[in-house]
Amino acid sequence: MEKPYVVGIDIGGQTTKIGIVDHHGAILSQTVISSTYGPDSGDKFMDAVCSAVQSLCSEVGFNKIQGIGIGAPNGNYYTGMIENSPNLPWANGKRVFLKQYIENKLTLPVTVTNDADAAAIGEMTYGAARGMKNFILITLGTGVGSGIVINGNIVYGHDGFAGELGHVTVVKHNGRRCGCGREGCLETYASANGVTKTAREWLFSGKYPNSKLAEIEEITSKDVYNAALSGDELAVDVFNFTGHILGEAFANFIAFSAPEAIVLFGGLARAGDYLMKPIKEAMNANVLPIWKDKVALIPSALKESDAAILGASALAW
Amino acid sequence: MEKPYVVGIDIGGQTTKIGIVDHHGAILSQTVISSTYGPDSGDKFMDAVCSAVQSLCSEVGFNKIQGIGIGAPNGNYYTGMIENSPNLPWANGKRVFLKQYIENKLTLPVTVTNDADAAAIGEMTYGAARGMKNFILITLGTGVGSGIVINGNIVYGHDGFAGELGHVTVVKHNGRRCGCGREGCLETYASANGVTKTAREWLFSGKYPNSKLAEIEEITSKDVYNAALSGDELAVDVFNFTGHILGEAFANFIAFSAPEAIVLFGGLARAGDYLMKPIKEAMNANVLPIWKDKVALIPSALKESDAAILGASALAW
Fold first, then answer.
1. A148 vs B290: CB contact, 8 Å cut-off?
2. Contact: A257, B155; criterion CB under 8 Å
């Protein structure tokens, strides 16, 4: 019989969030531990995770926990491993047997996937995509990730790594250099880093002598958003440019899987109409006529601070 | 209990092929009728299909037929209709209730899908993709179509029209005008028509004064292939250019669904290494490092003359 709670674990570069979640997506209790362990300390990190889960679950009773869902960078659903994650020193250039290790230690079923797939499952279970069978979630954070849902299931592909939509090529010639080693990836333009890069490039070009952003030494995407709010022309144009690139890319994604909606998740998604409007325009201008004005564009419905735990927890149902 | 035979029907612009097929993909008998009926003659066409099926099946016995699979341009799996197919005058600008009409008349279950999806199911059932759960079939014919298989199932999407990969935008600025009303679609470069268009443009440019293709009045993609075989520089360059555009597009498709293979189907796929080699090069040069040399590129394994019937028939199992 299904038990009333699951554990959601979101492993990030700096911290790992752990929470107990019920069927309605309410977080009963949560805790945060550090993810910053050294290159050979994967086991130590996983021991710390297990201890934190044990003390958290002792409150509600271990026998009421259905299972554990973990979202992690480069987490692989098929193998249950983190496979070479450059942002986690203990998983850089190696495979960490996350599922196997934690299952052995806690004797609870563990499901692993990457962070964007976890977010998509979270939206489907508790958020903006409830009741949807076909949608694409795009995470607009430091990078750009994606979780693709077809027929109610996450697309993992042949090897478990499907849904790398941050790395479709959107600029073919002289595109920006990407962390993946290639050029012109969507992520280099449409992530928070991409937005600040565009802003810096345009400031440097001298075309916007009056932009207030010139006064800021280390521009963040939040600075660009705040500048847009106050009417700064450069900032508004940066969001138009970014939205346009996203909308063009979304038109191609729609030709692939004909989703009911595209859900935007992550920090940049909070830019609201500054970003949503140009995305919608470019999406509808570039999509096949049969899908014009047919695919919804919606922001995440999960509370930002809870979204990571909720997404991971949804894996465990 | 499952019966030993199915009927496969492939509706094309000029002719409709009908065949009886067994579990091994052998065609027991087949026939061809005309598809060229006038704007208000959809019922007449469907009556002719039903008569042809009845006389074909009388040989093996109607009670041994499991069902009927139909591949048709703009055939919709969900609705069982042909929805606005410009190449079929009796289905142009309207919906034809194919499944409903034929089921009523023949009292056999009917499954409808579009031609590229039928081809993908055919390859999965009898051809190059047997045993595969995740692959993408690309049809390189007059146009460019696609059938996407994820987890062993065709991707139909929210509305039944998913998999329009011939209409992803591959040239963003000043791209060729496409029949769909947009510009720069993959189909305008990588179809048989695209190949001949490229050849004509390059002949006209004067850069290839020695090409034998200059002697041909109405160049076809077969002429370009024959010229390539005899070492014609323009023809070889046309295939390199076409293959490069396809390979770049495939790299993006792989980021979406991480397929085990991409299967090439249709006339242009017979150009062999003239096309396969540049596709492979561009695909591996543009794909994320994790997929480099990991995704197979394979030609269809179905006999060209039988492929359409086999593909449609596979729907009925």
1. no
2. yes
Tell me if ipTM is over 0.90: yes
Q: Chains A and B: how many Cβ contacts under 8 Å? A: 115
For residue B172, which residues of chain A lie inside 8 Å, CB to CB?
A: 248
Q: SS3 for chain A, per residue?
A: CCCCEEEEEEECCCEEEEEEEECCCCEEEEEEEECCCCCCCHHHHHHHHHHHHHHHHHHHCHHHEEEEEEECCCECCCCCCEECCCCCHHHCCCEECHHHHHHHHHCCCEEEECHHHHHHHHHHHHCCCCCCCCEEEEEECCCEEEEEEECCEECCCCCCCCCCHHHCECCCCCCCECCCCCECECHHHHCHHHHHHHHHHHHHHCCCCCCHHHHCCCCCHHHHHHHHHCCCHHHHHHHHHHHHHHHHHHHHHHHHHCCCEEEEECHHHHHCHHHHHHHHHHHHHHCCHHHCCCCEEEECCCCHHHHHHHHHHHCCC
Tell me the per-residue pLDDT of A78-130, one tens digit each, with 9 for 90 and over.
Answer: 999 999 888 899 999 899 999 999 999 999 999 999 989 999 999 999 999 99
Contact B50, B106 (CB under 8 A): yes
Residue A1 predicted with pLDDT over 70: no
CB–CB contact A259 B167 (8 Å): no
Of residues A208 and B302, the one with the higher pLDDT is A208
Q: Tens digit of pLDDT for each residue in B272-298?
A: 999 999 999 999 999 999 999 999 999
Cβ B242 vs Cβ B197: under 8 Å: no
Angle at A136 between CA A293 and CA A226, to 5 degrees: 80
- Mutate which of B148, B168, B174 to test chain A, going by most A C-beta atoms within 10 A? B168
Considering CB atoms only, which of A153, A156, A167 is closest to B288? Answer: A167
How far is the CA of A43 from the CAs of A68, A77, A185, B134, in angstroms? 18, 20, 34, 34
Q: Give B-chain residues touching A253 at CB under 8 angstroms.
A: 256
* Backbone phi, psi, residue A133, to 5°: -105, -20
